[in-house]
Amino acid sequence: MADQRTTTLAAVLAGGAGRRVGGAKATVELAGRALIGYPLAALAAAQVEAVVVAKPDTELPTLTVPVVLEPAEPRHPLLGIVAALRHAGGRAVLVVACDLPLVPPALLAELAAAPHPPEEAPLLAAPGGDPQPLLGLYPAALLPQLESALAREEPLRRTVTALSPRLLEDAELARFGDPAEILLNVNDRADLERAGAILAAG
Prior knowledge:
Blueprint: E1 8-13, E2 29-30, E3 33-34, H1 37-45, E4 50-54, E5 67-69, H2 77-88, E6 92-97, H3 105-113, E7 123-125, E8 135-138, H4 143-151, H5 156-161, E9 166-168, H6 170-173, H7 179-182, H8 189-200
């Protein structure tokens, strides 16, 4: 895989409250490892430089990557993306939610290496045709638009849809595995159990 360290910065977002999974989502244990450890390990395997974006009060396990602190308020998913783009200093940002433990390194490498078209639209994974704003590549040029949407506290999906994102849909995602499995989002204990079963099955 090509080394994307000079062109793309990955940001693992960990600022959510995680109430449905019991709180402190980044530290929830999955098969003996903190949940956030899975996307970080996949990014390391993909050779994409990574940071973690979190609130000042976010509980995190011991990490080997830098932590970028977003403001305590508002509690809005756009804030993590904006904080990452501000930190990236003009580089594109590959956003990965901390609760996506099964995303394969090859998919992350492909997203990180994607060229930026003139219109500077984000590139998002879209299993079942449903764009996932928290797994995708955001070009640096989008920062002013995202900052404006954040100031208005616009919903994340509405904001991203208005940017006419490019989508990686099932036909392309299937090259990396079953989209329903590799993009499993761990929101509650049932999702955690399902992820554990998938890992156990290899």
